[in-house]
Sequence to fold (234 residues):
Amino acid sequence: MNMFHQRTRDLYFAALLPLNKLNYWRWIVQRKAKSATSEIHLHLGCGPKYLSGFVNVDGNLFRKTDLWLDLRNGLPYPDGSISTVYSSHVLEHFYPDELHTILCECHRVLRPGGGLRIVVPDMGGAVRAYLTGRADFFAGFPRDNKSLGGKLSNLLFCEGGHRQGLDFSYLLELLQNAGFQDVRQLQSHESYVYAADIFSLLQKEEAGVSAISLFVEARKLSGSGNGKRARTGA
Fold:
């Protein structure tokens, strides 16, 4: 739905939220009838980037997905049943309370020792580039603004699509509040969560945004528990 204005997208997801909630409970019932023994790798907010070997999740009916789901409703998986969680340029689209719920759900469903990888627009890098006049840092999306201020606005606000800016200190706070430990800021070519074969696939998908992105990984350590279940739903 990238061709539509953000106001149109907001109306679309708001209208579908009740139906998506029913779909969430359908998946809950359906997955209770199955026993998950294999590794499950979630890809949250897949958009047009469908990843082989992952369960691709998105709230857009017009995308190819394995699981049509609004992340604000929660993740329809039992505690400790997921191996990894991956998200690229998605979490900045949620309000702080929604993002807290999503991260708590990620922590809940991950197995002890499981981890997540988050890729978001790098607010810290953008501010540094703005203050030092480095226009080359910024991409011309969603508008091809020529001014430095316009380029910064593109990255931080994305015409109203971004609900907040994220740097490492803020992500560290959010992830620790959700129960995660061993939170690390990494370079685009680094991962301690994914094996080399899976990570090579992720690197191909991240190549187009790596220059403007922040890469963070974290783990749910053994003995850390599932924490308090986040309140889900609108």
